[in-house]
Amino acid sequence: LHPEDRLVCHTTALLAEAGSIAVQGVKVENAIIDTGAQSVLMGRKLAECLQKQGKLETVSKGMLIITAEGGPPKWMPSTKEPVEVVLLPGQKGETRIRVQCGLSESEDYDLLVGMELIYKIGAQIDAWGEKLSFRTEYWREGGEQGELPVRFVKMEPKKALRATESLQKAKEEKMAGGKKAAEKDRMESLRQPKGATLGEKPITIVELFGGIGAGLAAALEAGLVVQKWILVEIDPKARRMAWHHADQLPMRYPGQISKAVIEEAKKEGAWDIRQLNEATVWGWGQVDLVVAGWECQGTSRAGKGRGMGDARTALLDELLQVLKWIQEGGSRCCYVVEHVDMEGDPREPIRATQEKVVAELGAGVSWDAALNNCSATSWASREGPGPP
Question: Fewer Cβ close by (within 10 Å): the C or N end of the chain?
Answer without folding.
Answer: N
